[in-house]
Amino acid sequence: MSTYKQEIDWRAVFDPVSIFYIVAGVICAALSLKGFMLPNKFLDGGVTGIAIIVNLHYGINLNVLLVVINIPFLYLGWKKIGKTFAVQSTFSVFLLVVVLELLGLMNIEDGVTADLVLSAVFGGVLMGVGIGLIIRGGGLIDGFEVITEFVQKNSPLSAGEITVFLNSLIMLFAAIFFGIEPAMYSILTYYTAIKMTDYVVEGFEEYTALTVISREEEKVKELIVKEFGKAISVYKGERGYLPETFHIKHPCDIIMTVVTRLEVHRMKEAIQHIDPKAFFYVQTIKEVKGGIIKRVGKKHS
Description:
Blueprint (H helix, E strand, L loop, with lengths): L2 H4 L3 H4 L2 H22 L8 H13 L3 H19 L2 H22 L11 H21 L7 H10 L5 H20 L1 H23 L4 E7 L3 H11 L4 E9 L8 E12 H14 L4 E7 L16
Antiparallel strand pairs: 1-3, 1-4, 2-3
Helix pairs in contact: 3-6, 3-7, 4-5, 4-9, 5-6, 5-8, 7-10, 8-9, 9-10, 11-12
């Protein structure tokens, strides 16, 4: 087992930025639950969804359920993911319980709005922002993320397929216990929360990998680096192998750069101006760190 998993990084645990993210995220998640979701019997996915079902159907205290149901997942995170992660997640869960108790004293059980669509959308937005901030702080309030990663390593299914399957079961129980309409609104809440979590964790500015193969490779390199101010990576490859002339091939440089989605079209047009027959393809990437990814050169006109 790696040292990373064995040791607790107390500097990370007490990092002011991480604590700020977790506290802000917990407040958003608690407001979503108390102000929008619970008054309308709307569910989120994962542990939170299970806790809401049991709370509303059997009357067991929600805060107790959030702690008890999360315990085995937090233990699994401690053993399989990392002790620092487990400590920060435990702090997040207990802080959520404290904030929910405080909000309970403010008597907002009637909800912020009676409009079901607004409740589903804004409840999902607040929950998604909250979960995203907590993840950025290094923790979790939903242990389902832990079991999804664990099961994925021992299953042919992807993490996305496992998540969809487990949360589909939760929504099915919501439909059985509370009716089809609350279950449908719960799906809307859950989907909104997922999208907001992605935006908060990965950022609103989506990056794209642009790969170019061109006969005018030196001009294309100069264009990307000097005119657009982007760093490039160059792979040695071969072009050719066309169906009619399969035996003909030429060595070439395969040029790859990372740009924002707002820059892709402009860069493609500039490359095609240099080489109308240039071949390129675009891939969406989830995370970029290091290197030169912001535009630092002059703007190409």
